[in-house]
Amino acid sequence: MILGCASLSNVARQAAAVATLSMFVVPMCADFGWSRAGFSGAVSLGSLLGALAAPLTGALFDRHGSRWLLAASALAVAACSLALAGTWSLVSFYVAFGISRMMFSAPFDVGTTAAVAKWFVRRRARAMALLAMAAAFGLVVLPPLAQFVISAHGWRAGWVALATVALAIGVLPQWFFLVRQPEDVGLAPDGMPGAREDFGAGAPEAAYTPREALATPALWLLVAYTLLVFPVQAGLSLHQAPHLLERGLSPGTAAAVVSTFSVMAAVASLGFGALRLPPRLSLCAGALLMSLGAVLMHAVHGAALAFAAAAAFGTGIGALLTMLPVIWANYFGRAHFGAIRGITLPAQVGGQALGPLLAGALRDATGDYGAGMVLFAVLSALAAVTVAFARPPSPR
């Protein structure tokens, strides 16, 4: 029940994803004459707002759980999507999408992953894989849905469709069925007493306080990893569709490539969740695949290479979305998961803020996305090297 509610929230959340927003780049910029950097700034603003909200969000989750946090976030995303359908200026676009993206970056992220981390220990990687697969499913469905509605009725109707989805699946199940942690209703993680962490045979469950976690090298290596890899995740996700259109692909093919990236992310989520690799090695492999995807995207001049790039990039994203919440919970425990994620989440959303802006600015300066793809390939490779050294701290 908990995993199902969190998964529905992860689908509703994708109404504010950069991959979904990428469907609106060309029609909205054409209508209003906005630059790509100017358009991308709304993503950056929302991510920065999310970074500011993250510490408070994490503490609120540890105290009250995900129930009201996820329901209120879905309501906010639906309201903002309706506001975007009526936007007539860059300012109103920034306000509406900035708030929507803030919900995506902090409350949704902490609320979904923390709910699963609290309820699962031995089966955590598998549960996180299914949660990540739900997010990927949302990206399989929502960008093509938005593109279909945009093609048929215009971009304003596309925002209305996204608002409808967020409202339909993101509020009532979460409000009625989410519980903060199993101990609140007399249960144990995984439904079994004495559950232990899955990252070390016979190892006790970690139990770090935020202060203790901040004193470990592992935490700072994971923060550095997120700072390097999330500009790539957000920047390439937002600009992949306009990049493909500029390289001569049709709108329908570009939307199919975005869906392929999402399908591969879903498949990879299950694969990495089933593997018994240490989470840091899975994250290292994911970053290397994202680097390969950026290299292939740089070389795109036809559909075949575009689909290959999407497959590599999507597989890397699947590893990232599945194993990053797992490694935080495995390394530092369930007790203060929300607070620790709230403290460290600004690095993630800060990276997500920077990536789209960098790619848009480089495209405006050079007339092509090629330089941005090279930058993303380098950042992902550096992230892979960084996380390889992030060994688990001694359990407390």
N-C termini distance: 30 Å
Quick one: CATH class?
Mainly Alpha
Helix and strand content put the structural class at mainly alpha
What is the alpha-carbon Rg in Å? Answer: 20 Å
Strand count? 0
The CATH superfamily turns out to be MFS general substrate transporter like domains
Helix fraction by DSSP (H/I, runs of at least 4): over 70%
Total domain units:
1
CATH fold field value: Growth Hormone, Chain: A
Mean pLDDT across the residues is 89
Low-confidence stretches are 194-202
Global geometry: globular
Q: How many DSSP helices?
A: 15
Major pleated sheet: none
Descriptive key words:
Growth Hormone, Chain: A; 396 residues; mainly alpha
Description:
The chain has helices at 2-13, 18-32, 36-64, 67-85, 90-119, 124-153, 155-169, 172-177, 210-214, 217-246, 251-274, 279-298, 303-332, 337-366, 370-388. Helix content is 79%, strand content 0%. The two termini are 30 Å apart. The protein has 15 helices and no strands. Helix 1 (2-13) packs parallel to helix 4 (67-85), helix 4 (67-85) packs antiparallel against helix 5 (90-119) and helix 5 (90-119) runs antiparallel to helix 6. Mean pLDDT is 89; it is low at 194-202. With 396 residues, it is mostly helical. The protein has a single domain (2-180, 207-388), classed as Growth Hormone, Chain: A.
